[in-house]
Automatic annotation (TrEMBL):
Source lineage: Bacteria, Pseudomonadati, Pseudomonadota, Alphaproteobacteria, Sphingomonadales
UniProt domain Ribosomal RNA small subunit methyltransferase E methyltransferase: residue ranges: 73-224
Entries under Gene3D superfamilies matching the protein: 3.40.1280.10, Hypothetical PUA domain-like, domain 1
Catalytic activity: uridine(1498) in 16S rRNA + S-adenosyl-L-methionine = N(3)-methyluridine(1498) in 16S rRNA + S-adenosyl-L-homocysteine + H(+)
Source species: Sphingomonas tabacisoli
Protein's name in the database: Ribosomal RNA small subunit methyltransferase E
Length: 230
């Protein structure tokens, strides 16, 4: 269970809302029951249900089980895409251990807004189900121009270009990295040129078939994680 505050030994927490419903009605927790909690800061903790009410319960933190896991230094920069599809990207990015999701505004994007709170809720749910102890950070939406202007030279920018590039598996090198994926309509020619002009940019291919934006994002992260993400 994700708790959005730093956890510590002996702490007592009142759990309410959807989390209380899950523990009381789905897991049928009673006083004395054990529950695992994480806070994305200090790691994973064992909690003991001290008291149950109709719609809430008190959990006492009993012991630390694990430190917060180390997350591979990979950013996923994606143009926002339609609701269900970007939610899916957020969920899978959380499962795969992406450090940071960076929404990037591009010219051909169909969607120009993003509900970061909703994305975070999907990330939390995926992390809880997969026993993760860390969540991806969600950056503020940034224009492609601003992203490229301030690009940190030491971070490889793997630019997924459906028109061709080095196969990602061959392009991966150690160190901080980011994957950049275009929107439904792809990047326009001027954008592709601007991306290629960044010294850290490495145009990469995900194969000869054009993938939907969300598939490209998760395929690229999977390949990078399998090769470099320990
Ligand atoms: N129109 C489809 C959609 O609605 O999702 C396809 C969109 S594709 C143009 C979106 C982005 O996915 C591209 O800008 C690129 O970053 C990435 N992409 C898709 N297929 C790719 C491939 N084979 N190699 C590299 N990048 C790819």
């Amino acid at each position: 269970l994700f708790i959005d505050q730093p956890l510590a030994d002996g702490m007592e927490l009142r759990i309410e809302g959807g989390q209380a419903h899950y523990l009381l009605s789905v897991m049928r927790m009673k006083a004395g029951g054990a529950v695992k909690l994480f806070d994305d800061r200090t790691g994973e903790w064992l909690g003991e249900v001290a008291q149950t009410g109709k719609r809430d319960l008190i959990v006492r933190i009993a012991a630390r089980l694990r430190d917060r896991e180390a997350v591979p230094d990979l950013w996923l920069c994606v143009a926002p895409i339609k609701r269900g599809r970007i939610d899916w990207v957020a969920e899978k990015a959380s499962e795969l251990g992406v450090a940071r999701l960076v929404p990037v505004a591009t010219r051909r994007a169909v969607v120009d807004k993003l509900n970061a709170e909703r994305l975070r809720a999907h990330m939390i749910e995926a992390a809880e189900q997969c026993e993760r102890t860390a969540l991806p950070e969600i950056a503020d939406m940034v224009s492609l121009d601003a992203l490229l202007r301030d690009w940190p030279a030491e971070r490889a920018l793997f630019f997924a270009d459906e028109e061709g590039g080095t196969p990602l598996a061959q392009a991966i090198r150690p160190g901080p990295a980011a994957i950049l994926i275009g929107p439904e309509g792809g990047f326009d020619p001027a954008e592709r040129e601007a991306i290629r002009a960044v010294s850290a940019a490495v145009p990469i291919s995900l194969g000869p078939r054009i993938l939907r934006a969300e598939t490209a994002a998760i395929a690229a992260v999977s390949v990078w994680m399998a090769a470099a993400g320990d």
